[in-house]
Amino acid sequence: MHRRNFLKSLTSMTALWGSAAIAGAAVLDQRPFAKTDLIKTARKLASSTYVPRKMVPQEWQDLTYDQYKSIWFNTHKALWRDTDSPYQVDFFHPGLYFPQPVEINIVEDGIATRIGFDPAMFDKTDKVPDLPIDDSLGFSGFRLRTEIETPDIFQEFMVMQGASYFRAIAKGQSYGLSARGLALNTADPKGEEFPDFTKFWIERPAAGARGIVIHALMDAPSVTGIYSFVIHPGSPTIMDVSARIFARVKLDHIGIGPLTSMFLFDETNRSRFDDFRPAVHDSDGLLVQNGAGETLWRALANPKNLQVSSFVDDNPKGFGLMQRPKDFANFADLEASYHKRPGLWVEPGEGWGKGSVTLVEIPADREIYDNIVAYWRPRRPILAGGTHKFTYRLSWGGEPAAIKPVTRVINTRMGKRFTGGYIVTIDFADHDVIPKDISKITRHISANTGTVSDGILQKNPETGGVRLAFTFDPKSTQSMELRAQLMYEGHSISEVWLYRWTA
Questions:
Q1: pTM above 0.90, yes or no
Q2: Fold classified for 3-253
Q3: CATH node for 409-502
Q4: Among 43, 215, 399, 486, which residue carries the largest CB count within 10 Å?
Q5: What confidence score (pLDDT) does residue 351 get?
Q6: Cα 466–469–473 angle (5° rounding)?
């Protein structure tokens, strides 16, 4: 179909359904909206054979990265622009990494309106070749904007695009790590499966509303589901997520609340990279508040071989990937602004039962690769034909309030000793729980193999806190699980520092 005929068909559909509700967009379909109907759709879909979505024309798939970035949405055509809506919605075109379009519906006054793709919504440079226009085209995702810092200035704070991935930021931050709806068979020898959000329903918020609601239909060879997001941008940006998934097959390795990030190097492995920057990462540690009330800090690593770590738990309080360095000098990167990347905290909305917080660290040699994954893995599988409901809260921005007052790990350094083995220094933040006489603090340092020293504890005049330093020798082993903790009068006064060293 030629572009002119395609646009004429969209125009006729708009005339048929009316365009008053969705100014500036072609209307393809309208019907009453109810979340219960979405759940029924997902349940019915799970009982049928999985059918992959259609691809856009090959010419769109063959766009180079520079060509793809040379096409951009015209924000003057944003959804709800020049209305009393507190939010505006921009759309992404398909192609390159996003060859399968998604369906986008706008919900207003109890009616769901499916909108069509229109090339006129986008601008481009002369780097972009002529591209065919036909009815296989559609949006690849969308982003949300609102007045975050300045009245009448709508700033971007959230993106949903690609598989079930989405990401957000808090006020004053830059995009970093991502979340997704569900992880399946991550780091499994049989291969990972990436479920897709194939359809979205964006509810128009009332004038003056603080939040916005989005629903998404998930579809994949192994599972279907409905996800609902109640989103409140700010400091932090909060998302309350409720989900119901339906298993097509037995799901014995699922990841709930999965997070994806990048860790290339810091002061623990700096010698492996010839780079002008002192560190390169979107996140530097996994934070866990377990069901027993402990606060764990697992410093991230970039191993030379795939590593999977499991932190067995019962009803965890939460977990997340954090970016603790917040000064420009920590990264010295004016373009990437790694010091402005958000942390992301996952807080269960109800008891998740028994399972494990799972951390996957994948070898990487460039910062363009997301090589860190963290998620909650339930102990019990979901049987074929079964369903599972869960809720959780995502907080994009800073860190959660501690369950009990302890000093945080703010940096980890590591290097070889000229006499053999390695030395580790762990800096703990200044905190009221640290006694003035630090000689009364007990140091607990251990490893599952090799040898570790007793360590020394010193005041750090730069941070105001304390530094714990110790040495370890792996001997002939290829990996060591290291653990350190500070105690005072029989109580923990620090996070439990954890690290997996690999040869």
A1: yes
A2: Beta-galactosidase; Chain A, domain 5 (2.70.98)
A3: 2.60.40.10
A4: 486
A5: 82
A6: 160
